[in-house]
Amino acid sequence: MSAAALDRRAFILEHTRLLPVPHAPELSLHVAQEATELWQKTEDELAVIGLPPPFWAFAWAGGQALARYLLDDPAIVRGHRVLDFASGSGLVAIAAARCGASAVEACDIDAFAAEAIGLNGAANGVSITVRLEDLVGRDEGWDVVCAGDVCYEKAMAERAVAWLTRLASRGARVLIGDPGRSYLPKDRLEPLASYAVPVTRSLEDADIKHSTVWRLTA
């Protein structure tokens, strides 16, 4: 069986539970019941069919911080076109939709993430357009662009930040949620809010990650 042939919806429902997000409990996500077990499953036995790591199955610290920031101040996105880049579970996109954004798009390059975003959006009663593609380098006129936890790998961070900087230069509000990942370009960031975010110890080696929402400056 190939990854393409695998029933993604059934796989997600089998390996996750719909639970409140720790730092944004008004929202719920399908998250891994056993974090290390699911991660190991994708790395080992399912690696032979090309299954990518299940980033979609967790509420990462930067995403939780971004979601909390939007929920606490809905005017940031109300009436605006929003893109949630590298959306994963769709958490930030769901928060933006709940806050009254005029249109919300969530993009990811993982087909399992795209399926998870659809499931999570429906579970929270919001409408989100899922984009299964790499949008880096594109500009479709978004008013607000959110990116949570995208600075954990050097090449990806550099590519994404260069693109996000161009969007900020033409007037988009670019918000980055991050718990201090290695490749965060702090020299170009304005801190907006900080949170103590509950996370999965087996993935983050901590129970709490201090996470900041930043605005990227042009």
List keywords for this structure.
single chain; 218 residues; alpha/beta; Rossmann fold; seven-stranded mixed β-sheet; two-stranded antiparallel ribbon; 7 helices; 32% helix; globular
What features would you describe in this structure?
The protein has 7 helices and 9 strands. With 218 residues, the protein is of the alpha/beta class. It has a single domain, classed as Rossmann fold. The protein has a 7-stranded mixed β-sheet with strand order 5-4-3-6-7-9-8, with helices on both faces. Helix 3 packs parallel to helix 4. The longest helix has 16 residues. It is globular and about 45 Å long. It starts with 7 loop residues before the first helix and ends with a strand. The mean pLDDT is 91.
Radius of gyration, Cα only, in angstroms?
16 Å
CATH-derived topology: Rossmann fold
Number of domains: 1
Largest sheet: 7 strands, mixed
Distance between the termini: 46 Å
| CATH architectural type | 3-Layer(aba) Sandwich
Task: Please count the beta strands (DSSP E, at least 2 residues each).
Answer: 9
Order of helices and strands: HEEHHEHEHEEHEEHE
Shape: globular
Q: What's the level 1 CATH class?
A: Alpha Beta
Residue share in helix: 25-40%
Q: What is the strand content?
A: 25-35%
Task: Say which CATH homologous superfamily is assigned.
Answer: Vaccinia Virus protein VP39
Mean pLDDT: 91
Number of helices: 7
- Briefly note the structural class of the backbone: alpha/beta
Low-confidence stretches: none
The order of strands across the largest sheet is 5-4-3-6-7-9-8
Please describe the topology of this protein:
Blueprint (H helix, E strand, L loop, with lengths): L7 H8 E6 L2 E9 L2 H9 L17 H12 L8 E5 L5 H8 L4 E6 L2 H13 L5 E4 L11 E5 L5 H16 L3 E6 L10 E10 L2 H4 L3 E9 L2
Parallel strand pairs: 3-4, 3-6, 4-5, 6-7
Antiparallel strand pairs: 1-2, 7-9, 8-9
Helix pairs in contact: 3-4
